[in-house]
Amino acid sequence: MQSPRWLVDHGKPAEALATLAKLHAHGDQTDPWVVAEFAQIQESVTFEHENEAKSYVELFRNRSSFRRLFIAVALQASVQMTGVSAIQVSSDELDQYYSVTIYGQIGISGQDTLKYQAINSIIALIAQFCCILLIDRFGRRWPLILGNLGNCITFIIATILIAMFPPGVANNRSAQWGFIIMTWIYNFSFSATCGPLSWIIPAEIFDTRTRSKGVSIATMTSFAFNTMIGQTTGIAFGSIGYRFYIVFIVCNFTNALFFWAILPETKGRTLESMTYLFTHSPWWVPGSRSEDYGMHDIDRKVEEIREKGGLVDDTREGDELERVKTE
To answer: CA 125, CA 130: separation in Å to the nearest integer?
Structure first.
């Protein structure tokens, strides 16, 4: 089933109205909330068609668009600086420095090594499933902040363990297992928060007028930082060893502070209310409430429609709605 917005955007208003009614009113197409949401979507789609971004330059001319681009780009860059790419780098130098050495010292080798690495992948899948189940309950802002803090803590513990019990020198199996467990906990923390949110947030904060261009720049940033980390990690470990982990400790902590300061909560928002949020809410988010910026627009429309007896008179949307009802 396609989304109501997609159906309106592709010239299928009747199907869009029916879909909205099924989702929110058990099929009742005259429900005030359904009528209000339908009218709002039509208004938004019409405006976006008339003002569609023709070039990337337009992302920098509009305050709301630039703010969303800034958050999306910063988010994709910050995710790579959590250290996820460094942990997952599969270069021979890094594998020799950590994976094979640590697993070998605790008596794990050969196919067993693959088994424990598979555990890491299973943990990631479970964490991502948890994100899917809980993201609309807990929102985006605080899971992202707490996820970065969780990453930071696991990196601190892992760095201390490697510094005190370096592979190839110390033979403390508890410390070696502690390092492996920390990588598993890190993977859960990242995969339940920062990883999926780095794709969810950019996709939902842009309007359809700018989404393709905004998300493409954010994605380019992700791959650029991923390439940078992949190319420098082996060299860094060869030169300064475990101290390279300090970079990710600092970055995870500053990521949390950064998004605490600039990322508003977008949970439960329609695409139509995103523009109002990023246009009128302050850039410094602490102390403000995102629900004060456009969250009640749909409620106002519902009240207006109820006062008019469920009809949207004297508007193109109302005419279209009446046509749909009579079909």
So the answer is: 9
